[in-house]
Amino acid sequence: IYINLLLNNANYSFISGIKITISGKLKGKLRSSIFNQNFGSVPIQTLKSDIDYAKAHVFTVYGVFGIKLWVSYYNN
Question: CB atoms < 10 A from the CB of 17, how many?
């Protein structure tokens, strides 16, 4: 909900999309799984697009979670 407000806010109109990927032992399962969520459009296949990328690892009692974030900006 907050990300949709961020994309629709006039102060942040330069952001065209956000992509979030979380991988690890989600929901307490024994095997690793991946959760993907897109808000807006994030063109990963093009070289002309302006995209920021960040990756982090979270260490918990249940194991390690990986979080990846892509933020796509409008080209002016």
Answer: 19
Number of CB atoms found within 10 A of residue 75's CB = 9
Which amino acid, 38? N
Question: What's the pTM value of the predicted model, to 2 decimals?
Answer: 0.77
Rounded to 5 degrees, φ, ψ at 41 are: -120, 135
The type of residue at 51 is I
Q: Is 51 exposed, middle or buried (0-12, 13-18, 19+ CB in 10 A)?
A: middle
Q: Residue 32 and residue 23: Cα distance in Å, rounded?
A: 7
Tell me the C-alpha distance between 26 and 65, whole Å.
Answer: 8
Tens-level pLDDT at each residue, the chain (76 residues): 566 676 676 666 788 888 999 999 888 888 899 999 998 888 878 777 888 899 999 998 878 899 999 988 887 6
